[in-house]
């Protein structure tokens, strides 16, 4: 039996390597475009939340995990949203801190990025209490409540995990803030708040 030539082995190795690359790209794309678990809808401004809501002002709240790499894009989209909002709404970003971690653990790169956005107040959410109160299960989940305290939008600001650019969520929110009414809900792309990323360590 004729043994494969060196060139034949190289071709075979190349085909196998290409297959590995394609499989990896497909897996990555599938992950990027897979949204988090569907969020719960909290139709009215939740009772018991320490967040202040000024009379006659819409309020936007983003619930986030401080170590979720996907949330960088959500914070960037929030910055773009607030730049177009012209002060029409008060905004909060709440970074959860899992039980047992020291105070200040959540104040990293994403905290600083969110805190630099004009009109945004950044707060800690020990144990994810507020995330549960607002029905959030995925990092980057945004809710907007109107001046009457009714939910106007619930969803994400990106079209994929870590993707920066125009999205149905940001477009819907901008329209609601500009014209009133309600915006359609959109999927949230990010890490699970109750199942933190592997980088979420002490």
Strand order of the largest sheet: 3-2-1-4-5
Question: How much helicity do the residues have?
Answer: 25-40%
Report the total helices. 5
Overall mean pLDDT score? 83
In terms of DSSP E residues, the strand content is: 15-25%
Task: Using the coordinates shown, work out and report the CATH topology of the domain at 59-179.
Answer: Glutaredoxin
- In the CATH hierarchy, the architecture of the domain at 59-179 is 3-Layer(aba) Sandwich
- Point out poorly predicted stretches: 20-33, 198-202
Shape: globular
Q: For this structure, what is the CATH homologous superfamily of the domain at 59-179?
A: Glutaredoxin
Q: Order of helices and strands, N to C?
A: HEHEHEHEEH
The main β sheet shows up as: 5 strands, mixed
Assigned CATH class of the domain at 59-179: Alpha Beta
Protein name: RedB protein
Organism: Corallococcus praedator
Provide a descriptive summary of the structure in words.
It is a single chain. By secondary structure, the protein is α/β, with parallel strands linked by helices. It has a domain of 121 residues: Glutaredoxin. It is 33% helix and 15% strand. It has five helices and five strands, in the order αβαβαβαββα. It has a five-stranded mixed β-sheet with strand order 3-2-1-4-5. Helix 2 runs parallel beside helix 5. It is globular. It starts with 5 loop residues before the first helix and ends in a 23-residue tail after the last helix. This is RedB protein. It comes from Corallococcus praedator.
């Amino acid at each position: 039996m004729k043994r494969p030539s060196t060139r034949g082995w190289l071709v075979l190795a190349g085909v196998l390597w290409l297959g590995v690359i394609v499989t990896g790209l497909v897996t990555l794309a599938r992950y990027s475009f897979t949204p988090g678990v569907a969020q719960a809808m909290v139709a009215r401004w939740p009772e018991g939340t320490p967040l202040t809501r000024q009379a006659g002002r819409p309020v936007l709240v983003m619930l986030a995990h401080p170590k979720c790499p996907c949330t960088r894009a959500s914070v960037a989209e929030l910055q773009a949203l607030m730049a177009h909002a012209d002060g029409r709404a008060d905004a909060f970003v709440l970074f959860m801190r899992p039980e047992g971690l020291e105070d200040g653990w959540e104040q990293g790169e994403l905290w600083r990025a969110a805190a630099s956005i004009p009109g945004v107040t950044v707060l800690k959410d020990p144990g994810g209490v507020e995330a549960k109160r607002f029905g959030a299960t995925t990092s980057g989940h945004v809710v907007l409540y109107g001046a009457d305290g009714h939910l106007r939008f619930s969803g994400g600001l990106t079209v994929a995990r870590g993707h920066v650019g125009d999205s149905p969520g940001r477009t819907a929110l901008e329209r609601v803030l500009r014209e009133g009414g309600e915006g359609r809900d959109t999927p949230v792309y990010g890490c699970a708040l109750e199942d933190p990323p592997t980088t979420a360590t002490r």
